[in-house]
Amino acid sequence: MTGPGLPDDNVHATMRVALWCVTALLLVGLSLRPLLTQHYRQHWLAVTAFVALAGVTAVSSGWVLRRRPMPPALTAVGTATALAAGYCATSAVGAGAHFGAADWSFGLVEWYLLLLLLDRVALLLAALATHLALSVALFLAAGQPDRVDIGAVGIVVLGGATVQLAVVVIARALARGTRRTTAAIAARDRMRTRLLLAEGWERGQRNDFAGQLGLTLPLLAELADGLADPRDPDTRRRCALAATQLRRLFAENDESPDPLVHEITACVDIAERRGVVVSLAVSGSTVAVPAAVRHELTGPVVAALSAARDRARVSVLRTVAEVRVAVVTDAEGARTAPPGAADVEVEYGSYGRDRRMEARWRRPSS
Amino acid sequence: MAQAEQLTAVIVDDHPAVRDGVTHWLATGTPPIRVVAAGDDVRVAWVGDGATADVVILDLHLGRTIPAMGELRRLTQAGRRVVVYSMRADDAIALQCLELGALSYLTKVEGSQHLIEATVTAAAGRAYTPPSLAGALAGDRSSNRPALSARETEVLVEWFQSESKDFVAQRLGISPSTVNTHLEHIRVKYAMRGRQAPTKAALVARAIQDGLVQLDDL
């Protein structure tokens, strides 16, 4: 019914240990003395019953004390032994001694049944009822009881049954409580994992974004500290580069049917705002470009455009075999170092007053 | 006498500002080209002075959404030298215009110099390939595209990328006239495929005459 390690098992294992101690204690502490001192019709029968019950205690200890569930076969044999021992011990009792001190087995067997069938409530109730019926039958068979006797027996039976049922109810309540607690702990653990994941993701996003911001943050810091002079042409060039990078970053996250051209258009837009006359030409139908490759293709465009002075020619060409993005400008000043590219080949060259950059991506042949 | 030798053109465009602007560009260019007729309907190229103009400058859209491919085909079938002058840079339409026999396809963002050069070249029965058209040819992925040599492809791409023949010549270590020769050669290859048109036949004949292609190449 329940697999190993489940909360019900833990509760039952603990309660079984307690019940085992109870049976052992009752057997040795409360039952041995009447067995030795009381008078029985067939003393050997009572002793046999006692030994059988002691055997059940001894055998079950191997599983119970190690907190393992007992095998069904053992449970069945144990239950049968307990019921039979109860019947034998009770039948050995002389008339009028039923449910009295000499009838030590009545309550004891009930504890044995509890020990053996704690997690099988229906069987337990059936076994308890059988035991009760046998005991009452023997009691009635032994002679005509008077009303006082019946009252006394009723109290003993009721008292015993109440205690056993209370144990069953407690076991179930404990199991239920433990189940809830375990579920709550598991839910809390899941929540904690999700929280950790979310934190990690957020950290990743932050790092990514900071990485994508590129030169913007240090440049802003330098401007704020007065280290960079806005009148300096070099500072202005860095501002142009940072602005183009930012614009590309925004464009990267847009939904567009042609993301490559969309990003390049965004870069062109920034250059035009700076007063650069840009002619943009796109040729060849749209092809799918992976985001990482797109980033490598547009990176050099950002750098080349931000270095342009008055004019720039930007072209995107998609042929059968490759995607080629080129920028020809009248750039001046030191060339921005080409960023390391894994999939894209970047070529730079100066021709007279013109500077050319071309990024080529060879499409994997499909 | 000089008047008789002057090149003539007819402009078909639905925007008066474009007609006037192009007329001005052509009149003040080198060499000056006289616009003999202009209008928003292709009729001006068939009747009156427009019927005998050397070059037809045709706006493909003429205020409609569907490009005037039928008008272009009728003009080229009649042997008219047509320069398509379009608002849109659409590779497929540009290639289709070449297929129908247009000698050039220009987008309106390309400046006056390209238009003048295209008109002068067309008047001589030759093809002119502006950078945008070079891009369309380089990006042509159709199955029946002609096979271009590696050098021809490089010329097309570099011309598309830089818009400067001097730049291309410098990059590839050839003379600017060799750049032109390559471009013409490519156009002849394109003219030789697909449907026949008098202008395309004339283009090929011209190329053979100039020694640009050998008869064996055909």
From TrEMBL, chain B:
One of its GO terms (molecular function) is DNA binding. This is Response regulatory domain-containing protein. Pfam families: GerE (PF00196), Response_reg (PF00072). The modification 4-aspartylphosphate is found at residue 59. Keywords: DNA-binding, Phosphoprotein. GO terms for biological process: phosphorelay signal transduction system; regulation of DNA-templated transcription. InterPro entries: CheY-like_superfamily, EvgA-like, NreC/VraR/RcsB-like_REC, Sig_transdc_resp-reg_C-effctor, Sig_transdc_resp-reg_receiver, Tscrpt_reg_LuxR_C, WH-like_DNA-bd_sf. SMART domains: HTH_LUXR (SM00421), REC (SM00448). Gene3D superfamilies: 3.40.50.2300, Winged helix-like DNA-binding domain superfamily/Winged helix DNA-binding domain (1.10.10.10). The lineage of its organism: Bacteria, Bacillati, Actinomycetota, Actinomycetes, Micromonosporales. Residues 8-123 form the Response regulatory domain.
